[in-house]
Design brief:
Layout lengths: L1 H6 L2 H7 L1 H11 L3 H24 L5 H24 L5 H7 L1 H15 L11 H19 L4 H29 L2
């Protein structure tokens, strides 16, 4: 019940709201103004959930995991939607998802090894990746000829974040021996 209690609060609701927002995005993706509004609301919930959790002392492992999951679901749904309508290429979707793919691989590794240590907080590179993912999608909707720059910047920060997460896991594995 503890983990459930840790996400049944305002920060948890803000994080979880990105999942239905992803579904709404699919419905409005061909309307740039509406799609932009959904992206802005999602970005605001991403900023607010962490702020509220820290401010109200409601930070928890379960809340952090829900936040990360909601981010990944939202970004994945948005990227696939934009790829299906031709706004993003498959390569751009893969570049936007570099960090997220590496996190999934790390999670699978931990699951296979039966490690149950708590997820780590995002680092500055992970946060910058998320920021540039949102910027890439916004510019893809509003100024399509310029979104490539943000895709590349998100990919660079995504690679740096991925390497830092792998290094952190290697360090943790060595320290457990």
């Amino acid at each position: 019940m503890g983990a459930l209690k840790d996400v049944l609060n305002l920060p948890g609701a803000l994080s979880a709201s990105r999942i239905p927002l992803a579904a709404v995005f699919v419905l409005v993706a061909r309307e740039p103004k509406l799609a932009t509004a959904i992206l802005c609301v999602a970005a605001a919930t991403d900023i607010a959930d962490g702020y509220v959790a820290r401010r109200w002392k409601q930070s928890s492992r379960a809340g952090g995991a829900l936040d990360a999951l909601a981010d990944k679901v939202f970004v994945l749904v948005v990227a696939i939607t934009l790829a299906m309508q031709g706004t993003l290429t498959l390569i751009e979707v893969l570049l936007l998802g570099i960090r997220d793919f590496s996190e999934v691989l790390l999670f699978l590794r931990l699951a296979i090894l039966h490690r149950r240590h708590p997820p780590d907080d995002a680092n500055v590179f992970g946060k910058l990746t998320t920021m540039f993912q949102f910027a890439a999608v916004l510019t893809a909707l509003l100024a399509p000829s310029h979104h490539h720059v943000f895709v590349l910047v998100a990919a660079v920060f995504g690679c740096i974040a991925a390497v830092s997460y792998v290094k952190r896991e290697i360090h943790r594995t060595r320290s457990m021996r």
